[in-house]
């Protein structure tokens, strides 16, 4: 499971257009990095996804490209070039159902 939040928890992706863009970019990059997503959710100031990859070591590049492209796009849309968009991301390996629920409660 991967979770990331925007810098200062600002709701930067608050329109239907920006949330759709973020979702589509996540799905496109997941496919290009050979990640199989089982679940995902995007919100104005954070996102979550659960997925897996047969290739070790691809998550960092996947997230880096996702954050870079989405930051450039939202900054262009808002006319705020160079603004910091993403804070950081956290990854957790889900081993049983209760660990997933505990992780969600910890994040929120």
- Give the number of domains: 1
The CATH architecture can be named as 2-Layer Sandwich
What's the helical proportion of residues? 40-55%
Fill in the CATH topology. Answer: Alpha-Beta Plaits
The portion of residues forming beta strands comes to 25-35%
- Strands across the major sheet, in which order? 2-3-1-4
Number of H- or I-type helical stretches: 3
Q: Give the helix/strand class.
A: alpha+beta
CA-atom Rg in angstroms: 14 Å
Distance between the termini: 14 Å
CATH class: Alpha Beta
Shape: globular
Largest sheet: 4 strands, antiparallel
SSE succession? EHEEHEH
- Corresponding CATH superfamily: Transposase IS200-like
User: Total strand count, please?
Assistant: 4
Contiguous runs where pLDDT drops below 50 for at least 5 residues: none
Kindly report the average pLDDT value: 91
């Amino acid at each position: 499971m991967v979770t990331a939040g925007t810098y200062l928890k600002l709701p930067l992706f608050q329109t239907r257009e920006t949330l759709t863009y973020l979702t589509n970019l996540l799905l496109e990059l997941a496919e290009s990095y050979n990640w199989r997503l089982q679940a995902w959710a995007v919100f104005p100031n954070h996102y979550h996804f659960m997925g897996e990859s047969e290739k070790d070591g691809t998550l960092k590049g996947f997230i880096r490209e996702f954050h870079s492209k989405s930051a450039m796009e939202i900054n262009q849309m808002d006319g705020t070039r160079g603004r910091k968009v993403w804070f950081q991301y956290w990854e957790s390996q889900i081993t049983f159902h209760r660990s997933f629920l505990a992780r969600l409660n910890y994040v929120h």
